[in-house]
Design goal:
The chain is α/β, with parallel strands linked by helices. It is about 30% helix and about 25% strand. It has one domain: 3-Layer(aba) Sandwich (Rossmann fold), CATH 3.40.50. Strand 4, helix 3 and strand 5 form a beta-alpha-beta unit. It starts with a strand and ends with a strand.
Length: about 210
């Protein structure tokens, strides 16, 4: 089936994820620039960014099933897709997969009750930014964002002008780490959408210059 021009799996929550991508990122203010999409899922954000005028989207999605649909949804478009996780350092990592209908919630952070794990290729965030020179960074990786704190602390120095992160609070310490990341980003950028860091499950923040 298709929704907003993207193929999706009707037995999953793919359709709601597509709607979120077309709703949550408007204040990024994307222009004709290169976008780095970390946690691409099936390509919803990438398609939205291209419709907003992005020159190119570099997408990273570690789950093989999601990646297959990402390729299908972006064929012939200005998207460079990688079947890889984004990490602070290293070249492989475990991906803990959800067995629920939420195929966007796979994570490189171990989640309680999950036993379905696969080893996937991994790529360092800092190296990826230096390779592709994006000016906008989007991160939605189900708790993996908290492993990227060293690079997130120097995004402006790496040429990033805007960043959006969806924070997840699956562990008690993640709320504290989200506040550290937000404080670091507040020093580098102007807050366009403040994350609601006391929210129960997840929240999106947007920063830009």
């Amino acid at each position: 089936m298709q929704h907003r021009g993207l193929f999706y799996r009707p037995e999953t929550n793919d359709r709601s994820i597509i709607n979120e991508a077309f709703r949550d990122y408007v204040l990024l203010g994307i222009g004709e620039e290169t976008i780095l999409d970390v946690g691409a899922h099936i390509g919803s954000f990438a398609i939205w960014a291209l419709e907003e005028g992005a020159k190119e989207v570099i997408s990273f999605e570690p789950d093989p099933e999601n990646y297959g649909l990402l390729l299908h949804n972006t064929v012939g478009k200005k998207v460079v897709a990688h079947n890889s996780a984004i990490v602070e350092e290293g070249n492989t990592i475990e991906l803990w997969r959800s067995r629920t209908k939420d195929k966007s919630s796979h994570s490189i952070q171990h989640r309680r009750g999950r036993t379905d794990v696969v080893h996937v290729e991994a790529t360092a965030l800092r190296d990826t930014i230096r390779r592709y020179h994006p000016t906008v960074l989007k991160i939605d990786i189900e708790g993996g964002e908290f492993l990227l704190l060293p690079t997130l602390a120097c995004l402006q120095d790496l040429g990033i002008r805007a960043v959006t992160i969806e924070f997840h609070f699956g562990r008690s310490e993640w709320r504290r780490l989200s506040k550290e990341i937000a404080a670091s980003l507040n020093k580098q950028f102007t807050v366009r959408v403040p994350p609601k860091l006391d929210k129960a499950w997840n929240t999106v923040g947007i920063w830009a210059n």
